[in-house]
Amino acid sequence: MTKVVKVENLSKVYQLGGTRHNSLRDALVGFLRQPSLRSEKNKLFALQDVNFEVSEGETLGIIGNNGAGKSTLLKILSRITKPTSGTAELRGRVGSLLEVGTGFHNELSGRENIFLNGAILGMSRAEIERSFDEIVAFAEVEKFLDTPVKHYSSGMYMRLAFSVAAHLEPEILIVDEVLAVGDVAFQRKCLNKMRDVSQSGRTILFVSHDMSAITRICNRAIALSDGKIVGAGTATDVVREYLSSSWGMTAERVFETDKNPPASEFVRLEKVRVIDENGETCGSHDIHRKIGIEATYEVLQSGAILLPNYQVYNQSRLHLFTIQDVASEWKRREKDQGRYISTAWIPGNLMAEGSFFVNVAIVTYLPKMNVHFNALEVVSFDVADSLTGDTARGDFSSKMEGVMRPMVDWETSIREN
Q: In the CATH hierarchy, which fold is given to the domain comprising 252-384?
């Protein structure tokens, strides 16, 4: 099988901090001093000695927690970013969808952007025209085809961007988390189209936090952690190992220093923690014990009823339940400016064993519905059964199926004839 992607000893290092130079002399002095003055602790290794190959027609899933190096890798493969060392060889035309509308010109219409993207891929006008009607029909933007894309909604922008990337027939399609945006029907449509692209013999590199999408679409997968490959093999095996290990686990996430934290004009998320009964950050919990999900957020302006909303998923990415602050004094009460901490407690003896992930949102229902933000897979935690015989499994020691494991009250009586 022909190798169309070959990555060898690939590394990307970013220098943290630095000195602003006010003159050419300062810049030259800084450059000459750079090797001796810059310490390793000021370097961020986004990727470290990454090696892998992808054959023609394969679909490779790339998974890992936030900051693992996934997007950096795709940017290098898409020739957006240069590596610090190592090589990445790609054979064939590359179509990339790294962000919604990558490669679009805001002042041009949807029609013009389709032809622009085709030209960037090296396609002739005739080749683009053959796919034009299919692109437009898939994206469902016929009425707005001659409108500048700067006037598109985010959903329209995303639909057209994905349709262009998938239909202009690049030999290698690179997709980064495109399914995180859009409605469920279009997400399903995207997945089906990616399967079609793969079955047509083209190669796909697909980054996603949706493990079910990875296992459905991808032949193989690699898992990244701290810029290194920590797992490689069949998609099913890598996903299973990823979910059962600590690669994707983080019981605390701090957004205070992020350039683009989850936020709206009313509220900004600062920190989320999973905590134990003592209020300590904790990623592993006994099945008996209650588990706290704590969000710290800043209300930027008064005038809105702001309800924290936590969505809990299991390791198969099955949505187990959503909990939101509807039982407290804040249910119909506006929050004034300031910092708030909202904690939801999941009862003990409710969750099954396994790994769980939490999305964090702030929503308003009155006077109208508004989702201020919905941060995906912000924190995660494990639940373990100590096999003491006093949980819902009793003395049963083998694998116990089921997505939840509540301890419920039982009543048994002897029926009298």
A: Coagulation Factor XIII; Chain A, domain 1 (2.70.50)
